[in-house]
Task: structure prediction
Amino acid sequence: MNTLMRQFRRYPAVDLDEYRRFMVAKQHVGWVMPDFAVALARFPHVFHVDDKAVTLQPRLRSFNTRSEGVAEVLATLRAEGMVPGWRNEFYPVAQGFYTAPLLQMERAATVLFGTLSYGVNLNGFVGRGWAMKVWIAKRAANKPVDPGMMDLIVGGGQPMGISPWNNLMKECREEAGMPRENAEQAKPVGIITLLAVIRNHMRVGLQFNYDLELPETFAPHNTDGEVEAFLLVPVSELIDRLKSADDFSYDVAVVLIDFLIRHGFVGPTDADFLDLIAELRRPIPWIQ
Result:
């Protein structure tokens, strides 16, 4: 498939009828895969599991008791190898970004519960029009997710306790060695949604996107060991790679397609334009 739509066809459409709702305090906050629901059923003091839902026990009534109960279960399942890619980083569990979280959960487990997660992404570029070049990173081989695949110049998950803007500033410093005066020129440009099952993990997310035009004299350098190399890629080559290969992480490819549309490299004259727009904003059934 020599089209940008290939990126949205890398993984089959999500059939939510195959999953069980994750319910907390009578709120629907995620989707649990059947096999993982069976594992959770071993912990009836924390989860009630039936054919339709995985429900956090109502006796866990506060943010702290819910978080502690889930953490206890996840620690056991981690020891059994059922929660790969452990980060020691907490994500909120809620129906929306601006609603109070019901609990916090280890980042690596969010894809097992199908909960809504967030990220910040920076499109760093040099020049304008078809003379534009885009900075691309190659992920380190020891990354727990998508090792060795292509990435943005800066991107990261959105954990508890920090704003998207401050998180972006932190990631710019750590991932690209970017001076604060450069990073602060980043412009918020919107969001994309993610809803896909990737290697038996459900990715459900909102990605906060930023653009930054960088000076030709700037060259990124990684400081946290998460990037193997940086490449400055002509925009025409970037489009060709997205049309013909799958070497970009899925969420990164989607962010880049949004970037290409916003900068006029893909438009209404492209046969896939309307389909691309729709895929960039896949609805998330329970989001608020």
